[in-house]
Specification:
alpha/beta, 11 helices, 12 strands
């Protein structure tokens, strides 16, 4: 299959590309902003075509889509803290970029899979047994999640109005190799590796539903192969844990004391709890996660960051300087 992967030099996209070669002919379109890097694709650079460009460049996107059998659309600005500080790039990439991709796949009648987030649903009460489903009403609470919600709605409208052959997925929090050090898990790991103290927003009671990036991508392959066009699938691995528990697990795995961290100012509008109900993926598409031991997955992730310091160390100081300016 000839695949166009937008955002394929970012965290989840790069891991997807690693799993796609050499079985498929992959073209990556990526702006190579701070969150995407050639280094993330270094081990497969001879097997892919990497095009540096803006996902809102209609002429470029149309040309690349015309050469593809399917498009997997990862390209997005994703960091909530950055969206709170400056939402404009999120509107540009997440909304206008998705519109540009949709117009190209409509013109060239190319299959699309749009990758989204569970954050579009807002949050759940900490003591609730509820989980997000594909029919949960959207209730985004940050500029980031609002732009992703807008992108999702565009995909649904283009499916219904123009018959675009698309599927969509909303996934819970990912972790694993190549994740930018601004994100929660790699930030804590790299803080320890650089002699800094880990940082925890507020009391750390906020709950996230964690999934290993390889499990996320294996679900995407199942949806690409057998997903029902026009359908939304929720991807999760029953990985609910509060942030404090995740941090304490990292501390234990890295031989640090359980209280060897600092509490910092909580994020504005910090969502309380995410939880995904992935039942249709299990029952309809026969998918299930392989990385079900969260502690083992964290241990492997810690090992990756320890063994690949040349990938993340050039980014670390500037990221921490930005957090320090915000008191975080």
């Amino acid at each position: 299959m000839r695949l166009l992967v937008t955002g394929g030099a970012g965290f989840i996209g790069a891991n997807f590309v690693h799993g796609a070669v050499p079985d498929h002919a992959v073209t990556v379109l990526d702006g190579l902003t701070y969150a995407g890097s050639r280094e993330s694709l270094a081990s497969v650079e001879d097997d892919i075509r990497l095009v540096q460009g803006d996902v809102t460049d209609a002429e470029l996107v149309s040309r690349l889509v015309s050469e593809a059998d399917a498009v997997v659309h990862f390209a997005a600005e994703t960091h909530v803290d950055n969206a709170l500080a400056d939402p404009e790039p999120f509107l540009h990439t997440n909304v206008v970029g998705t519109f540009t991709v949709l117009e190209a796949v409509r013109a060239h009648r190319v299959r699309l899979h749009h990758v989204s987030t569970d954050e579009v649903y807002g949050d759940l009460e900490l003591d609730s047994g509820q989980r997000f489903t594909e029919s949960t009403p959207y209730n985004p609470s940050s500029p980031y999640s609002a732009t992703k919600a807008a992108a999702d709605m565009l995909v649904r409208a283009w499916v219904r109005s123009y018959g675009v052959a698309a599927t969509m997925s909303n996934c819970s929090n990912n972790y694993g190799p190549y994740q930018h050090v601004e994100k929660f898990i790699p930030r804590q790991i790299t803080n320890i590796l650089t002699g800094r103290r880990p940082k925890l927003y507020g009391a750390g009671a906020n709950v996230r539903d964690w999934i290993h990036v390889d499990d996320h991508n294996s679900a995407l392959w199942r949806i690409l192969a057998d997903g029902q066009l026009g359908r939304t699938y929720l991807i999760g691995a029953d990985g609910e844990r509060d942030n404090l528990s995740v941090l304490k697990t990292i501390l234990a795995l890295m031989d640090r004391g359980p209280d060897d961290f600092d509490h910092v100012t909580d994020r504005a509008g910090h969502d309380l709890r995410y939880a995904i109900d992935p039942t249709p993926l299990y029952t309809e598409l026969g998918w299930s996660p392989k990385h079900t031991d969260f502690e083992e997955g964290l241990r492997a992730t810690i090992d990756w960051y320890r063994d690949n310091q040349s990938w993340w160390r050039p980014l670390k100081d500037s990221v921490e300087a930005g957090y320090e300016r915000r008191g975080q």
